[in-house]
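Figure 6 in text form: structure in, sequence out.
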């Protein structure tokens, strides 16, 4: 199907709105990202923006989707620099890329991983932002699955997992991931993500400044510990 000129102009205007919203976010913070401020920057009226986005919340979710897409593309670029068979190198490349991007885009990171946007995560409001967020998450999940299928790492049997946690893991595996894996693998995946994203968040939001001027060595220690649990080989950053 050939895209019409009107469709192209509409898509270009939506991109400009998203770019303007991001520039305001970076320069002034999330509270400044209002329809009025965006319209003023673009030389439009605030009501005119409603021809492209139904609400302020929809605009923010579109911006979230764009930023998730950028981050995911950077992850894939870094992963592709590692030879196919080097799973340890792929994990390290993805993790270091995530940290580097996050530190270089602190306000964007806060929008993605700070307080959830209204309606974000509800099935009835699944949209562009949700799909972009899932694609980001599948990047790490794909590495995890590749490792599990090629090199099984130790995981607890299902019956040894805390019953309350076991049911949550089963629901997450069956409904969100739709994969056929032992619950111990899902638990290990979440534990690794909590350590990676939790450590990066502490650094991005300045919660390690009380003790550290340069938290990178702590991050690398975390990479060593995660790798040991997965049977991965550690190599220091170049």
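Output sequence:
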């Amino acid at each position: 199907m050939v895209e019409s000129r009107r469709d192209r102009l509409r898509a270009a205007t939506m991109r400009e709105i998203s770019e303007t919203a991001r520039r305001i976010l970076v320069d002034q913070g999330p509270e400044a990202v209002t329809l009025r401020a965006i319209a003023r920057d673009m030389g439009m009226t605030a009501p005119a923006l409603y021809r492209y986005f139904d609400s302020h919340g929809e605009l923010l979710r579109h911006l979230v989707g764009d930023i998730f897409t950028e981050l995911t593309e950077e992850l894939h670029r870094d992963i592709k620099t590692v030879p196919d068979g080097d799973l340890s190198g792929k994990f390290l490349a993805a993790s270091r890329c995530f940290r580097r991007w996050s530190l270089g885009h602190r306000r964007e990171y806060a929008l993605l991983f700070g307080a959830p946007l209204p309606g974000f995560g509800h099935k009835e409001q699944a949209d562009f932002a949700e799909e972009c967020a899932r694609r980001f998450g599948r990047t790490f999940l794909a590495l995890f699955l590749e490792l599990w299928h090629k090199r099984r790492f130790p995981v607890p049997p299902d019956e040894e997992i805390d019953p309350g946690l076991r049911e949550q893991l089963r629901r997450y595996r069956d409904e969100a991931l739709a994969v056929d894996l032992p619950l111990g693998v899902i638990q290990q995946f979440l534990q690794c993500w909590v350590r990676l994203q939790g450590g990066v968040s502490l650094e991005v939001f300045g919660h390690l400044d009380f003790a550290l001027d340069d938290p990178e060595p702590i991050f690398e220690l975390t990479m060593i510990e995660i790798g040991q649990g997965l049977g991965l080989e550690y190599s220091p950053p170049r």
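Caption detail: Residues 120-125 have pLDDT under 50 and may be disordered.
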